[in-house]
Write a structure and sequence with these properties.
Two copies of one chain form a homodimer. The first copy, chain A, has 308 residues and is α+β, with helices and mostly antiparallel strands. Helix content of chain A is 37%, strand content 21%. Chain A contains nine helices and eleven strands.
Amino acid sequence: MLKAPDHQVAGHQAHAGKLGPLVDGSGCFYKPLQSGERGTIEAAFYSSFSSNSKVPTHIRRFFPTFHGTQLLEASDGSGMHPHLVLQDIVSNRLDPSVMDIKMGSRTWYPQASEDYIMKCLQKDRESTSVALGFRISGLQTFESEKLGYWKLDRDAVQDFTLEDVKLTLKRFVSSNPSSNAEPDCLLASTIYGGSDGILAQLLELKAWFEDQTIHHFYSCSILTVYEKAGVGEKGSRSRTGAEVKLVDFAHVVDGKGVIDHNFLGGLCALIKFVSDILVSSTNRSKAEGDLKEQTEEIEFSIANDSKA
Amino acid sequence: MLKAPDHQVAGHQAHAGKLGPLVDGSGCFYKPLQSGERGTIEAAFYSSFSSNSKVPTHIRRFFPTFHGTQLLEASDGSGMHPHLVLQDIVSNRLDPSVMDIKMGSRTWYPQASEDYIMKCLQKDRESTSVALGFRISGLQTFESEKLGYWKLDRDAVQDFTLEDVKLTLKRFVSSNPSSNAEPDCLLASTIYGGSDGILAQLLELKAWFEDQTIHHFYSCSILTVYEKAGVGEKGSRSRTGAEVKLVDFAHVVDGKGVIDHNFLGGLCALIKFVSDILVSSTNRSKAEGDLKEQTEEIEFSIANDSKA
């Protein structure tokens, strides 16, 4: 029984008779091959990547597992259509928070057509891509059983400024994302921080991008995913399932012996933002901790004074 | 007594009645302020940078020392003209090898005029900037007393392909740069390698660029400089004076709290090339060393055999 995914935050969606991805609820994500060379390129990428012995094992976890292609009834009712069979990244999650970040200051590549280049260049200039090296394409953050998800779709993010991006990276790990108040970043140390948190995973990816010259990943997205329910459970950092995944490879080109400086530059900018949020939230917790300690000391000395 | 510099490899030159930089032969480089906002921006950059306490001391050595501005007789005979008074990077060198590398996949910045953006974009696409994240703007390598310098001026480098750039980065540290034969990279381990060689300096600069959000350095160049005479002198690595310097700040803009991912991406690509040259030349020396050892062992056993 295939159906449209519940937690898709960007890209074409299989709603209202449109062609879009489907999930089977037991771990597979069926992505319709895009028309023209985009579909060919993405299928070729998954096929070559999954069998490339030069890709280190610890890097494979950042890519959805590939299970080949399959002819399926298309979601738009247009008949049979070839689909990529991929790992469904959120299949065993209850209330996943997901952010889609389109990487690169430039989403066009030199070999593309002039029309395509000019269209991409305009989008890159209108969005934060040129300024930041990436843009947020969509997100959902689970707030609470009562409030449900705080969501930003394509329309909501398309006019994002630098300040909007900074704020959204904070809201994504806050207990009060939908509030107009300053995001509290209460989940930052658990989700962004830690030895296998989002930041550590981004740094691992960065080290690979400083060296790999196999592929250039134009218009590719980083997904950051986690499970709020896992936060706060003692000794269960892994229960948050904080995870970084790369998706969307319809514009991957041969690296020709050069590193992907365009993706890498944006990745470094993202790392710096995430790391700044982590530092300031840690400092704040520390300051609050210090304050609490001071307060307790004062209370203790007051209590002692009153005894004396 | 001011004169045109002997070792300028790129940029406007003070020849044939043209406006260009002058040197005094005792350590100062006088750069005429460019017209319009370019001159204003560069003077403002030097002035603010030299007094900015947020710039770490170990990073300052990558920038020419700034000694203010001064009105001087212009090299084109047009009368008095304001000049930046800067450290002359090659003043106490005998036969400096110099390479000028214009950094960034993109030499334009969002705030620039549409005409300027389109002009830069075209140059970036025609050169290796888009593909590599940098382009070589000119170089000279000292070959020998007899052959003098191997030079590539602006015209020679403007049609450079990826392969030309790779080859030139090898030739820059070869004893046979002007030859059509494969560059021997004999100087690679001394100039690129070592604890204070070019690669180590580039890595130090990279660490700063991963963190600094003060300036974005559009159209800025990295100069790599060394002295061939120093190579091979025992215990005198420092005599080669292998040095990395940043120059040309007429298009520096406010970083607005974002890292300079455009410069950083190109820097990472450059680092990867330099590091590959170093690894393969070290492997070759090692292979040649192994071969020499094997040959000596064989000769030794032959000699012993004939004695027996």
